[in-house]
Amino acid sequence: MRILATAGDIDSLIAEIRLRRPLEALAHERGWALQWRSFHDCRPAELAAADVLIVQRGLSRRVLRLQQRALCAGAAVVYEIDDLLTEIAPHISQHDVVRAGLPWLKRCLASADLATFSTARLQHELAPLARASAVVPNHAFFDEDLPLAPQRPGEPVHLLVAASEHMLVDTLAAALAPLLGPRVRLVVVGPPADALAARGLPLERHAPMPRSAFVALARRLPNAVALIALESSRFASCKSAIKWFDYAEIGIPTLASAVPPYLDVIAHGRTGWLVEGGPAQWLEAVRRAIEDAEGRRRVAEAARAEVRARHGFAQTVAAWHAALLQARRLRAARSVPVQRGLAAWGQRAGDAAADWGVALRRWNRARLARRRRT
Length: 374
What we know:
Elements: E1 2-7, H1 13-30, E2 33-38, H2 44-49, E3 52-56, H3 61-72, E4 76-81, H4 95-111, E5 114-117, H5 120-126, E6 133-135, E7 157-162, H6 169-176, E8 184-189, H7 192-198, E9 204-206, H8 211-220, E10 224-228, H9 234-237, H10 242-250, E11 254-257, H11 262-265, E12 273-275, H12 279-291, H13 293-310, H14 313-332, H15 341-373
Parallel strand pairs: 1-2, 1-3, 3-4, 4-5, 5-6, 7-8, 7-10, 8-9, 10-11, 11-12
Helix pairs in contact: 1-14, 3-4, 6-12, 10-13
């Protein structure tokens, strides 16, 4: 099978998690051919050569045209989405761009042979917009079987907060302010750092980083405890519990808001702690975790065992395999009108121009890269 995987930025973290890692493993296992392209860098000739086109979060006329060209060439089209973008939360940085692209998102979903979703809740919300759907779950990140990080009583505890968007910073700030000091330190990765610092919390801040770099950072923190403060909303409930997957694999015990998706996967007191309520409840929950090193070790051990049994990398690869085969079956049973006459001539002329434009952009990027090196 020849697979062409595309995204707005094929080198982004979400493309790595959802597409690159599992599809590379699957292609290697099955002997399939796999290509990566950002939307702007995708040539019509590459579309024509693919058996399956995978589109991640398409939100534009350009993406719809890519899908239509692939369908006309006989390829199956899979539309991949991992968030409830039809009800995107106002605090998300790309809110306005996503809202503007919603009509194209819906047309892309309807045009594809199969839509893949990261969770069953997301599938329930968006499946009515698609011809057919499947769940391809997220997975924990681990490359080697390292021992659990030790949890030592009497030594400083590091509270770890990491998010690509702002979380419930007011709740966290009020809860953590009485605790922070030489014995309890706060480490923040991503945008919440600015908001928490603005509220006067002393912290060690880090910019967003690749997933592998974040895992390495988290492993180095002594007596680490992860905090995930998430709002209760339909948008949040459709997200994956991927942060807990990674923390569990690293060996870091987690406190999370008692809302989906964490309510769906964490067994309170056994594989993590679920926190209901506001700052007072968070303060008490964090304080108990800080004071109980043996409880932290026990929870971390149980969480890793649970994630490896139910949320491992093999499950994601197997789900992609099933989805791609399903998409091919659906495409084989589907009739797509073939353009003829003047419309076909116009399409060929447009494809030739697009191929030339992509080739020119690639040449120019290579030229700029050579100039930077010299």
